[in-house]
Amino acid sequence: MTDSGFGIDIGGSGIKGAPVDIATGKLTQDRLRVPTPQPAKPHAVADVVREVLDHFGWTGPFGCTFPAVVQHGVVRTAANVHHSWVGTDATALLRERTGRAPVVVNDADAAGLAEVQFGAAKGRGGTVLVITLGTGIGSALVHDGVLVPNTELGHLEIDGHDAETRAADSAREREGMSWEEWGGRLTRYFTHVEDLLWPDLIVVGGGVSKKSDHWLPHVRARTPIVPAALRNEAGIIGAAVLAARTEPAVAAS
């Protein structure tokens, strides 16, 4: 694995990218953010990805996050992007439009891997669950440094509801919940997940990770819970790491 990589993080409002030092998990240049095209159709998004790569003069393999389930490079769902992405071979499309070798990964999975390798879960073995709380609930499950992709634990049914409709940060805002009330919702969610997976550590990302002192004291769980450390750079870092890990296979494909 080389010491240099490149990560791109595709979101509903912005597409961000930067070169990354794989050994340290640090961005080696300031990231570039370009607004996500509207509508966010495949070719339009792929052309922005090429624009970001061209800006940095990056010609090698790169990692790219996507807000969806991604199986072997194929997009299976579409959240915050156009529905025409469903069924799209994102790896083939990005290779064609950029002229580089991409590794495409679910956005929460990339962020989770980065937190395990360089962030809040660095040095922790066993099973680490990284949960992002925002518009929805994203999840990443990592066991002894190995990612189990596309867990989608925000869509567990709890008390007859899709979990993210009750416990995401958007639900807190929509229902006007106090931090204490939301802490109760999170307790119900985290204890359910604990009973299924028995993680050794839970890392919570998303914008509310910066406000953990408001809600974390109200969460009751047997698993240690800590706020994420890498914040908005986690997706870029995780994508770059995954691309560097799989570079030989990608280059040969």
What does this structure look like?
The chain is globular and about 50 Å long. The chain contains nine helices and 15 strands. The chain has two domains: 4-107 and 233-252, ATPase, nucleotide binding domain (Nucleotidyltransferase, domain 5, 2-Layer Sandwich); 120-229, 2-Layer Sandwich (Nucleotidyltransferase, domain 5), CATH 3.30.420. The longest helix is centred in the last third of the chain and has 19 residues, at 179-197. α7 links the parallel β14 (201-205) and β15. It is of the alpha/beta class. Strands 1, 2, 3, 4, 5 and 8 form a six-stranded mixed β-sheet that branches.
Produce a short descriptive summary:
With 253 residues, the chain is of the alpha/beta class. It has nine helices and 15 strands.
CATH architecture of the largest domain: 2-Layer Sandwich
Number of strands: 15
Domain module tally? 2
What share of residues are in beta strands? 25-35%
Q: How does the major sheet shape up? A: 6 strands, mixed
CATH topology title of the largest domain: Nucleotidyltransferase, domain 5
**Total helical segments:** 9
| Estimated structural class | alpha/beta
Helix content estimate: 25-40%
Q: What oligomeric state do these chains adopt? A: single chain
- CATH homologous superfamily placement of the largest domain: ATPase, nucleotide binding domain
Rounded Rg: 18 Å
> What's the CATH class of the largest domain, please?
Alpha Beta
Contiguous runs where pLDDT drops below 50 for at least 5 residues = 248-253
